[in-house]
Amino acid sequence: MSELKGKNVLVTGSDRGIGLAVIEAFAAQGANVAVNGYDSVDEATLQNIRDTYGVKAIGVIGDVSNFETAGKLIAETIEGLGSVDVLVNNAGITRDGLLLRMSPEDFDAVINVNLKGTFNMTQQVLKGMIKNKFGRIINIASVVALQGNAGQANYVASKAGIIGLTKTAAREVGRKNVTVNAIAPGFINTKMTEVLSDTVKNTMLAQIPLNRFGEVEDIAQAAIFLAQASYVTGQTISVNGGMVMP
Ligand code: NAP
Asked: What is the pTM of this model?
């Protein structure tokens, strides 16, 4: 039997893409799940999870970049499921553009959702995890945080910030049996990447030894590993087909 059976898992930005795959992977292990969308969560998605996996599935709607709203997402999960044992900070956006032309608004927007959202959720979930003497926090960073990427100064800064936040949080709460790790995905087939041109995609593919883009399930698999790993903390796991070998 999976040790994740009966655990309560909240994944931000999980009504589609990587987040939804992570939700399904935890549900498949018997965990109860809280699905978060920015402004909605499809009831059909929740019902499908309940019917397929026989677990509790609730929707918690709201913007992680707002501190009070982030607190509300956690409170609603605790009310609906009983606790937050695993938090996956996955909500993320891009507003790409070259640094010289990037507007301060685009810089702030990406930092606010990706980095501040991760802070907002992490700080407010810790109280319960420390009280329960158990917690797993998994932050979704990116391969670009490890090497930079032209046209993504805001996004790369946010994701590199997430890695620093992960290491610091891991040092602060390790004694409380709370682990904090990050996953740095490479190029994963989702809505976020489908907008890229064929030229950009082909250039990227040429840099990937495993010769394919990743699927959302590849990231979900790493999240399940980190949720079960009791002696891994402060780490960033690269899931990128070998694109970057840090
Ligand atoms: P996606 O398909 O664009 O999904 C993004 C999710 O984040 C959606 O559920 C969206 O909700 C939610 N979201 C956006 N802003 C939010 C906010 N302020 N509050 C709450 N939720 C919010 O993206 P994805 O490709 O699955 O990416 C998921 C994560 O992986 C992101 O952090 C991304 O940076 C990271 N990542 C992706 C790749 C890749 O190749 N795809 C590579 C490296 C890292 P709505 O549906 O309501 O808008």
From this structure: 0.98
